[in-house]
Amino acid sequence: MQVDSDKSYDDINVTPMVDLYLVLLLIFIIMTTAGVQGIKVNLPKAGAASTKMEGPKTQAITINNEGKCALNTIPVTLAELEEKLTALKARTPEFPVVVRGDNLTPYQGVMDVLDVVGRLGITQIGLATQPAK
Question: Of 14, 65, 69, 118, which cross-links 104 as Cys (Cβ 3.0–4.6 Å)?
Fold first, then answer.
């Protein structure tokens, strides 16, 4: 069997590739519509007052570069912070807390705040950061 090395391959058969793309597109369409569909129901009507549901408000604890704390922009000491968070926990057992510290804040200041939050049994804690540039 002799191979003709002078034959050029100028045209590429793209039919199998197009078939593959169409099958993948079809699968994607079917899967996205299957996830969106649900059972249609007639929802009951409610008054304007009952539609407003408030979840727990996020509490922001900020520690500046001098180590001073603020709860939702109100300056507090660690003892006052513990009192206010205890009162909030009595009204709402589960609420999120975000701890924001300046990048020059002494580490001990952040640890003191986390210690207070941990003593109170608050489990929804977040540490605010900025994305790296």
Answer: 65
The CATH number of residue 110's host domain is 3.30.420.270
Task: Identify the residue whose tokens are 């649900």.
Answer: 38
Write down the pTM of the prediction.
0.55
Instruction: Say if residues 97 and 67 touch (Cβ distance below 8 Å).
Output: no
| Measured distance CA(116)–CA(120) in Å, rounded | 6
- Of 47 and 50, the one with more pLDDT: 47
What's the token pair of residue 31? 């899967």
Q: State the total domains in the chain.
A: 1
Query: Would you list the DSSP string of 22-38?
Result: HHHHHHHHHHHHHHH--
The strands making up 125-127's β-sheet, listed across from edge to edge, are 74-76, 69-71, 59-63, 97-101, 125-127
* 54-63 per-position pLDDT tens digit: 656 888 888 8
Q: Could you give the 3-state DSSP secondary structure of residue 39? A: coil
